[in-house]
User: What shape does this take?
Amino acid sequence: MTGEIEGGARVVITNVRPRLECGRYRVKAIEGDLLDVTADIVRDGPDLLQASLRYGSPSGEWADAPMSHLGNDGWMGRFRPETPGIWHYTVQAWTDHFATWRRDLGKRVDAGQTVDLELQEGALLLEKRLVLVPKEERRVIQAAIEVLRAPGKSDGWDAPRVTAAVDESVAAIMAGHPDRTEAATFEPVLGLNVERVRARFGAWYEFFPRSTGTSTEHGTFATAAEHLTAIAGMGFDVVYLPPIHPIGRTHRKGKNNALEAGPDDVGSPWAIGSEEGGHTDVDPKLGTIEDFDLFVERAGQEGLEVALDFAIQCSPDHPWATEHPEWFHHRPDGTIKYAENTPKKYQDIYPINFSTEDADGLWNELKRVLEFWISHGVEIFRVDNPHTKSFAFWEWVIDEIRAEHPNVIFLAEAFTRPKVMGMLAKLGFSQSYTYFTWRNTKYELVEYLNELVHTDMALYFRPNFFTNTQDILHEYLQHGGAPAFKIRLVLAALLSPSYGIYSGFELFERVPLHEGSEEYLHSEKYELRPRDLGGPDTLIPYIKLVNEVRRQLAAAARLTNLRWHDVDNEAVVAWSKTAPEEQSLLVVLNLNPFGREEATLHLDLDALGADVEQPFEVYDVVKDTTYTWSGHSQYVALDSPDEPAHIFLVKV
Amino acid sequence: MTGEIEGGARVVITNVRPRLECGRYRVKAIEGDLLDVTADIVRDGPDLLQASLRYGSPSGEWADAPMSHLGNDGWMGRFRPETPGIWHYTVQAWTDHFATWRRDLGKRVDAGQTVDLELQEGALLLEKRLVLVPKEERRVIQAAIEVLRAPGKSDGWDAPRVTAAVDESVAAIMAGHPDRTEAATFEPVLGLNVERVRARFGAWYEFFPRSTGTSTEHGTFATAAEHLTAIAGMGFDVVYLPPIHPIGRTHRKGKNNALEAGPDDVGSPWAIGSEEGGHTDVDPKLGTIEDFDLFVERAGQEGLEVALDFAIQCSPDHPWATEHPEWFHHRPDGTIKYAENTPKKYQDIYPINFSTEDADGLWNELKRVLEFWISHGVEIFRVDNPHTKSFAFWEWVIDEIRAEHPNVIFLAEAFTRPKVMGMLAKLGFSQSYTYFTWRNTKYELVEYLNELVHTDMALYFRPNFFTNTQDILHEYLQHGGAPAFKIRLVLAALLSPSYGIYSGFELFERVPLHEGSEEYLHSEKYELRPRDLGGPDTLIPYIKLVNEVRRQLAAAARLTNLRWHDVDNEAVVAWSKTAPEEQSLLVVLNLNPFGREEATLHLDLDALGADVEQPFEVYDVVKDTTYTWSGHSQYVALDSPDEPAHIFLVKV
Assistant: This one.
């Protein structure tokens, strides 16, 4: 800490925000968004400062944005990262000798002092700066120097020498061409992961391609492609496919997770690898890689992106088990260790040993897997259980991939402790599964969303709220009937910019393996589950409506604009989201799926931009009805079996 | 950020606290205090961790303290820095393979599995660690290995092989001799400025030695020494002397800051330097350096430390002005620039140019000045206006001095913007003047103290509450009469561990230069102000009482133990301070100096360690009266002209 004697640097920059773990990890942003950067900047003594936000694009070009003083030694500047990739930023500040001199000169003139020597000092300051001033402006400065040095009256605002000294055009040129030789620069330079909009905003639909045949006939990429129109018609943006690779035979699980599979059992797609190939192969039952390419193409035509599962684990039949036994854990008898969640054993799965001596070979092979699928048009990966793989690997591979392919998005499927989930997000995952499924009461929802939205988590952790997954059928859905499905859909889709459903949700599928279980009976993980989306009694029109609202309102695409509104009933929750120059979204939702709830809503009119004196219209997109409201308090009544939600567009 | 592929490190340590500006500045501590260090530690996967707090003494010896898991991936450890100086600390964590194996073995045995292979694995783990185990314990491990490898039953808790595997003494040896080869260590290593107790706790008394003569006869170190017994008798710990150096003649200020001094005017001690010498000389009117040494010795005999003023500025007559003109600012006409607070001019003062080309010469000379006074027994410096000198200089000189003289204390006299005052504290000042003088209402006091006590400021900013200074006579004192002096004394002395008064306070001196001014009439800065401390109507007995309470209670020596108690009257404030195993301090204070206030006090009984069901005694040291209280609510009435404060010792 004891440094060199230099005497120069007098300016200290601290508390640069946003910043994550002292700059060890990068903050996240979305292309095109303005990033506000603040800092505390102090200097000893009374001299004035100038400060600049310096930012560098992924290609390494640096630019400056001026910072302004907010008061109390806080400064702010902003820039707009226009392209995905790794950006950088820092803050630079320096003593503004000319502005200081100009300020003090004014005080002296006000006090009636003669300022001859001060004018000489000013001329010196201007002269010293000349070299930094472009030719076309230099003439202005040179003229000022001459006047400052001319003999004559040197007190009072009417003295031409004083007038020249405080000339605005001179001040502007000096401010525009500062001398930064003594500038302080904040260290470390901070990184910013800029991603495309889909990293924050998207509606996901998960389905198993193999279930698009019949209960006995295995679906294919071709039959799956036939579902894409219906999925797109519901308003989804992303279709997420569980692993599409060859499935192992050894210790294959049967229906309902039976230890022994029957000869026709299809096995879990997460038991990856067989003699037919591994992570860069497709299950022949689904088709060929060319069929997959066609599927991706067809999805693109429907406006859908394909997200693949990236599950780093192998069935005992995976080619790696014989080609690279060193990538696995071994037991004292020389056998490869299967997966366990002690004392549970998963003999159909070999976990990977990230601490292998051949980390170099392993890590690069995994990177090659991602590159393979990227070359087949996949730019979104849903990563299975990333928290059981090496943190260092994720930081490395995500950076490596995004350096070449900045549009690639990684979703972390980690249901584990909060700080572990946070760490994965800090390491680079674009978005994350959450505890949303287990947050059902108003208290739970408000507390959890406030953590996601109004703490530093908003800098790095982007939620993706799934209503259900192939592993999670919450008892709220099991018992709440169709209204529960509506409620959870409205919550997921209108609280979080990214959300998803797992197929069957739209058909109200809700039979658990057994009472108290969150697993589905006849789980699609172990058998084919063909579905008819064309029936009469589905959630499809409602899903379509909600997704239309999401696409219509820029406010729905953002997280940190969430504001709660008071409701005097614990079963009713209300929130709004706003964006500049458009109608606000206001949702009032009955969380009780079984009946009617009445409540008085106490609106935060400021959050809505409404005036307490001025009536305003709210249009309920569900009921297609417009109400005129005025003031803070509104009576609401929602009967869930009829309709649990008001989804209002607020016109102010 | 994209690193090497190593595959090893799986553990990530973040959020190590306490920490200041990411470790750029050192946190402060007092010798002998326990320092609690917390961190978030995560690892991918389910393996168990072990963590250690590593700490290094000023002499560079490192030691370990175990950390324990607090839950939610938070860990805590503590160490006690026993000596002043720069300490360091960091956190280390690693995967505890043996504990993980032992935990999983237990689960398997519980599940009724045979664990033969697991026992083999355990034997391997023990064997690998043998080299780290000291000889005397190695036998225990070797015996365990033999049993683990012996043939025989390998399921059930009754199997001898299982019993040996989970043996507590084996577990303890393994935990005590961990394998840290794959340990993660938090970076950067954090610094800790450990200081002696006086850096936090002390009662200061400021006086001008030259005023200890008569109104015409200049006081000396000898006459000043005669006051030390009285000062010590009031219970003070530190006597702070304004500059004692030769005073300049050029542009000397007269009485009441008159621009022209008369021939007998003594001048401001802050106009340092004359033909009689500079910063390492004493004003001959005060005596010789030997007289000063005697004064310091005499103070020590009275239990008082001497604090000197360190004011880096010169009168035009200072030897440096001729010997080192390059250390000053120059005007275009070649003259040295005098001090200004534009448009005010201070022609009797030359400020130093810290950006001089000869920074090396200047900085080392200033360091030599400090070393000179240290060699004359001074270990406390009250630094005048440090915010107008270079930040980099302070960081350098404080570190340089404290490296050799870890007992030296620096008090920053900076009354400026909050972040500038904070920066000086971060740079190394042991303690700081504050806004206390201008915080007089309950709202102001509570808000300000909460900032000092309950924010990160407590990590680096130690307040020294002065009731008044030679520059600051607040209107509260000017108008509030004797009760105002009592009130401000109680606030300063019992809110802040360090506090001070400037002489005259004990005599209720309160005549301002003019109405609306905070300057004293006949300011001692410009003339002799002899005082008679022996009169009847003084605050001396009250000061003595308050200082006795401070010395009696360890709680008064700490800042962060401050707790407010609710009072239903804005004119009455109540707070407590507690320390382990002693009576608590509870103060109830009427802030209205003019009359009687009644209020109901709502005690925070938990803060006092009292039981709502149990009566407890409070002894008022002012009234020498004991009351028995029970419950939260107490009626209090305080008539300031009689006595504004209850100062209670609480026996629970």
